[in-house]
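> run fold Acetyltransferase
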Amino acid sequence: MRKTVRYPVEGTNALWQIYQTVSFWKVMKNFVVIQLARYTPFLKLKNWLYSTFLGMKVGDQTALALMVMVDVMYPELISVGRNTIIGYNTTILAHEYLIDEYRLGRVIIGDNVMIGANSTLLPGITIGDGAVVAAGSLVNRDVAPGSFVGGNPIRVIRAADEAPLPPERVSEAEETVQEHDEDSTTILH
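> ok
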């Protein structure tokens, strides 16, 4: 279960009432900062923009790839640990506006986490240290430390306590990659 706080609204849908729940000027400032950060290739600058102007917590050596979209209304609810990679075009939401309510929830991403490209993280989730999220995943619940998850919605592909590939299978995989690289080199020259 995601950890969100629910705020009921009356009358028109919650999104129609957006500027009664968050300042227009805050959203405009956040939008400009996020767009600058999305396109900059300089990771230190990007992390500085997020932490200085948006109030996000971003750990050392963390890399948010090109086009990552963080929550424009409540980015201060997002925390990313150190040495984490968030893949291209990933969306991190800390809010959701529905018909009769809106919800806010912290998004906590641990240390040494890998999130594949084009993933969506919903509000109120925690991704534990060392976890891996496959590309194109919808993270709609917590991810245990060290586990590998993927899909829409996510499911556990490999739990943290399950062994990775045995050494002989790893060497087979490396040989396959090496053979592919040799073939590619031949084709390119």
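The mean pLDDT is 91.
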